[in-house]
Write a structure and sequence with these properties.
two-stranded antiparallel ribbon, 79% helix, mainly alpha, 2 strands, 289 residues
């Protein structure tokens, strides 16, 4: 029987070496994954525990537990108004960035690849510039040209969209390359499909996952951008980040509570967006499992 299992050879060393190598690879991948999860999870867990603690000084776990910080937050009208303003801001910025980026990338891929290289260089500028510099420059420019925009949510939406545009641009660009939109467009043209019809019926459904990911990135990058929000609108249009900042010198437990709430909101938005981006077949498979 051993002769049959080994294919006529009694030497099983190559098989055993491969099995050992595969085992060590699995161990290595598992170790890296566990380390990454701990690296991300421990600070989040510490924030959650601190928000629920009443006293926590020199012990591993809180010495007492309290929901006082949560009661303070949920009893505050300012919390709800700042949260609704921020969600509105994030949604508008996400829609604006995606709506601007998709036609731009399509025009670059179909029309002029050379222009795309220039835009790629320009898209690095908002990342290279600190948010404070971007905000002060915008305030100075629009203060000299359109002073009526100063301190308004409209200016904040525009500046925030410019700040997060590189992240959305690279995400959409990768989605275009993944589905090979140029080949799809050429094939559609040979079948007498118009450009507008191609965009609506073929391109956008094909880019659905990429669009959703870009929207989530835009939403998350806008949610807690304190520097831009503070310098452009200030307390006149208080956002979630500015409301949280008020408690930094007052109560660390409330700050942790607001951080937990912010993480939950982004997680829920990501989960909803990920669920909506899945095809019907994928949803049925998950439900069956």
């Amino acid at each position: 029987m051993d002769w049959i299992k080994t294919g006529g050879s009694s030497d099983t060393r190559p098989i055993s070496r491969k099995a050992k190598r595969d085992r060590w690879e699995r161990i290595g991948f598992s170790a890296v994954s566990i380390f990454f999860l701990l690296y991300l999870g421990i600070p989040i867990l510490a924030t959650v525990l601190f928000s629920l603690s009443g006293k926590w000084t020199d012990t591993v776990l809180p010495q007492s537990w309290s929901l006082n910080a949560y009661s303070i937050i949920f009893a505050s009208d300012e919390f709800y108004s700042s949260l609704f303003r921020t969600i509105f801001l994030c949604l508008v910025v996400a829609v604006l960035e995606v709506a601007v980026t998709i036609p731009a990338v399509f025009a670059i891929k179909i029309g002029n690849e050379g222009l795309g290289r220039l835009i790629q260089i320009l898209s690095i500028i908002p990342i290279a510039l600190p948010a404070v510099v971007l905000a002060l420059g915008s305030v100075k420019f629009y203060g000299a040209t359109v002073p009526a925009l100063l301190g308004t949510p409209a200016l904040l939406i525009g500046v925030q969209a410019a700040f997060g545009l590189p992240f959305v641009y690279w995400t959409i660009l990768n989605a275009f390359q993944a589905v090979d939109v140029v080949e799809l467009y050429n094939a559609a043209r040979t079948l007498r499909c118009g450009t507008l019809e191609f965009i609506i019926r073929i391109m956008i459904p094909s880019l659905k996952k990429g669009i959703v990911i870009a929207g989530v990135i835009a939403f998350a990058s806008t949610f807690d951008n304190f520097a831009l929000q503070q310098l452009i609108v200030g307390a006149g249009w208080e956002t979630f980040a500015m409301y949280q900042y008020k408690y930094f010198t007052m109560d660390g437990h409330v700050v942790s509570t607001l951080s937990v709430i912010g993480m939950l909101i982004i997680f829920i938005m990501s989960w909803i967006a990920g669920f909506q981006s899945k095809a019907k077949g994928e949803r049925k498979e998950e439900d069956a499992l």
